[in-house]
Specification:
The chain has 112 residues and is mainly β. It is 0% helix and 47% strand. Strands 2, 4, 5, 6, 9, 10 and 11 form a seven-stranded mixed beta sheet that branches. The chain has a four-stranded antiparallel beta sheet with strand order 1-3-8-7, with no helix packed on it.
Length: 112
């Protein structure tokens, strides 16, 4: 059974950093492109970043360009999202996705 398991969320002050991980036990990780989404409180879920199966190409939502970096380690079957210069509006549940599979998400709260 395919599982996507996010971790690394938490409370961080504005301007701070966090690194999210998405583990993928039981999945052919290295053959699939991966995506990060987020859902702010009371809002729709939105796509924020994608990466190809080999990690060669990435794409970002304009609101996070220059602040967030998506990456992957195919040897560890893990996807990452490095987040810097965090803002209160980055507060959301962050989820990883591939094909039709979704993780349950990890909550990131940016507040002083």
């Amino acid at each position: 059974q395919v599982q996507l398991v996010e971790s690394g969320g938490g409370l961080v002050q504005p301007g701070g950093s966090l690194r999210l991980s998405c583990a993928t036990p039981g999945f052919d990780f290295r053959s699939s492109g991966m995506r990060w989404y987020r859902q702010p409180p009371g809002m729709e879920r939105e796509w924020i970043a994608s990466i190809t199966d080999d990690g060669e190409f990435t794409n970002y939502h304009p609101t996070i360009v220059g602040r967030f970096t998506i990456s992957r380690d195919n040897a560890k079957n893990t996807l990452y999202l490095e987040m810097t210069s965090l803002k209160p509006e980055d507060t959301a549940v962050y989820s990883c996705n591939t094909q039709t599979y979704w993780g349950k998400g990890t909550l990131v709260t940016v507040s002083s």
